[in-house]
Every structure is written in C-alpha cells, then in structure tokens.
Design goal:
about 325 residues; alpha/beta; D-Maltodextrin-Binding Protein, domain 2; 2 domains; five-stranded mixed beta sheet; 14 helices; 10 strands; globular
C-alpha cells in the first residue's frame, strides 16, 4: 500500500470539499476511517470528511438516497439491497474487508450452534450487518431462525449487545474482536470466528450513488485515496500506538489497552486490493431473494463500480 500523494494531493491553500459518510457499524472494521481522519489523510486530498455513526443501516441508506450524505461505509445487508431494490442507484466502489468477520459470542450455557434453537440473539437492526453475519452463520450451521424458534432482538451497537449478553438477557450475538475479547476472558462461548468459515461475503466497503459518481467523481476517488493511505499506515508496525489511540477513541473505549485485540485482528481483515466482492454480494442476494422478489431480481454486477480502484491499482497505490 503506497503512501505517495501523487497528483491528486491538493494545495493547502485551496478550500476543502465537504463530504459526509455514514456507517451503521461500530467495531474495529472502522479503523481505516478513524485513522484516516486523525492522520489527516482525507484533508491531504482536499476533503473535509465527516464520518457519522448512525444507529442502523436503513438510516444510512435513507440519508444516501435523499442526497443528505454522499457515501456510506458498511456491508451488503438487507438494508442495502432493499434500498437498491426500491430504486436507489447504489453501488459499491471499494471493498476493504471481503469476508465475514468477528465472533458469534454466546452465553456459557451455550456449547454448540445447535444450542441456539429456541433462544434469543441480539442484533443491531432487523436487516443490518450483525443480523446478516448471524443469519449467514446460522445457514452454514444448518439452522433456520423461523424453523428453529430463534428470535432476533433489536438492541443497538456492539457495546449495547455485549452488555446484554453479560446480563443474560440474550443468548448470543455477533461481536467484533474488540468487544468479544472481554467476554472470552470471562468464560463466554465463542461459537465461531466467522473469518474462518468459507462463506462468500462483501463485508466493509464504500458505497455511493451513481448520481454522486457522475457529479463528483474526483471526490469518490479522493475518499478512496485517503482510505488506501490509512490502510498503509495501519499496516506499519511502528504506527501501532497511533492506530490504537484512534481505535480506542473511535470506539469510545475507556482505555487504549482495550483496543489491542481489535488492532491485532486488522492484518487479517483488510484486503490489499480493495475491489468489491461480486460473489459476496451475489450470495446475499440469493439468501434474501428467497423471501423478497425485488431483491431476487437484482444483479450483483450492477451494484459494483470498479473504475476508481482500477485507476488506483494502475497507479501502484496497491
């Protein structure tokens, strides 16, 4: 991952372009965004980027569709595909993490996936990332929420869900590595590290609309330049203290030390070549299309625009 600025680096004297990007996720997956902001990588390319955490993917999709925001960082979910199926001209322009990640953490009383039958699982929203990660894992294990009496309870972000698991108000939930670590040390069951399961998936990526690409292609390109620079910064071991500080601040952790587990997971998460994963998008269309005709009609290829990552690769940025 190169850190050279290239011709797109703008003079500090020029005014910055204001950009708003949302995410419904709240885990170490957002490290590249937190670090890019703290290290000034977006400003390097003339952008004043505001990264906003929203309560769920549907909120982010609504803001993107209305033009209130310009980009969204997240996974391919029911909210994303639902928005596309309803006519939002949505596309993934990059894929930083192209597989399922995180842990399915469960009560110490749960010893295997089959023990989840008849239990309550906490999720962020009805169609968001944690729901999608969990649903794909259940399918892999041969479980079906409806058939097996598994109830999804909408709770909120990872901090809220990990506390709910500690309080025994849910039986299991999907958590990133940062929030799963304290539970592991207290004897909670790790049913799976999802990164080890052979499930095609488009996890953390950058989405925008074709409308915005057509009006401001240079903004989309420069957002990706900032992210690539950030990923390169994260990959350098000497930058560990700065990355830990950004991760702890972004996740609102009381101590920097609590970000170590998440930091150590990053080398295995981020892609070197940040192309969106078409087969991962197709897999979710397949799953959700079973019960939604509009989603079933979507084509994964139509939800991807590789022009920017192709340009960056040609330049040798990765």
């Amino acid at each position: 991952l190169g850190l050279s600025g290239g011709a797109s680096v703008l003079s500090a004297a020029q005014p910055l372009t204001t950009v708003v990007m949302t995410t419904g996720s709240f885990s170490e997956r957002e490290a590249a965004m937190y670090v890019a902001q703290d290290q000034g990588f977006f400003r390097r390319y003339g952008l004043d980027l505001t990264f906003v955490h929203v309560r769920s993917g549907p909120i982010g999709m609504a803001a993107l569709a209305s033009g209130e925001t310009q980009l969204h960082e997240g996974s391919v979910t029911g909210a994303v595909l639902g928005s596309a199926a309803e006519g939002t001209d949505l596309v993934f322009v990059a894929g930083m993490i192209n597989k399922l990640i995180g842990n399915i953490m469960a009560s110490p009383k749960i010893k295997s996936p089959s023990d989840l039958k008849g239990k309550v699982i906490g999720v962020t929203s009805a169609s968001g990332g944690s729901w999608m990660f969990t649903t794909l894992a259940l399918e892999y294990w041969g479980l079906d929420a409806k058939r097996d009496g598994i109830t999804f309870r909408i709770l909120g972000d990872e901090a809220v869900r990990s506390q709910a698991l500690l309080n025994d108000s849910i039986a299991a939930t999907h958590l990133g590595y940062t929030f799963a670590a304290p539970l592991k040390s207290r004897g909670f069951t790790n049913l799976a590290d999802l990164a080890e399961l052979p499930i095609p998936f488009q996890s953390t990526g950058v989405m925008t609309t074709r409308r915005f690409i057509n009006s401001s292609p240079e903004v989309v390109e420069n957002v990706l330049r900032g992210i690539v620079d950030s990923m390169g910064f994260i990959a350098q071991p000497d930058n560990k203290p700065a990355v830990l500080k950004s991760l702890a601040k972004g996740l609102r952790l009381p101590k920097v030390e609590l970000a170590v587990e998440g930091y150590e997971s990053l080398p295995g998460l981020y892609e070197r070549r940040i192309y969106p994963r078409v087969d991962g998008i197709r897999n979710v269309i397949r799953l959700l299309g079973m019960t939604n005709e509009k989603i079933r009609k979507l084509k994964a290829e139509d939800l991807v625009d590789e022009r920017f990552v192709k340009k960056l690769e040609k330049e040798g940025k990765f």
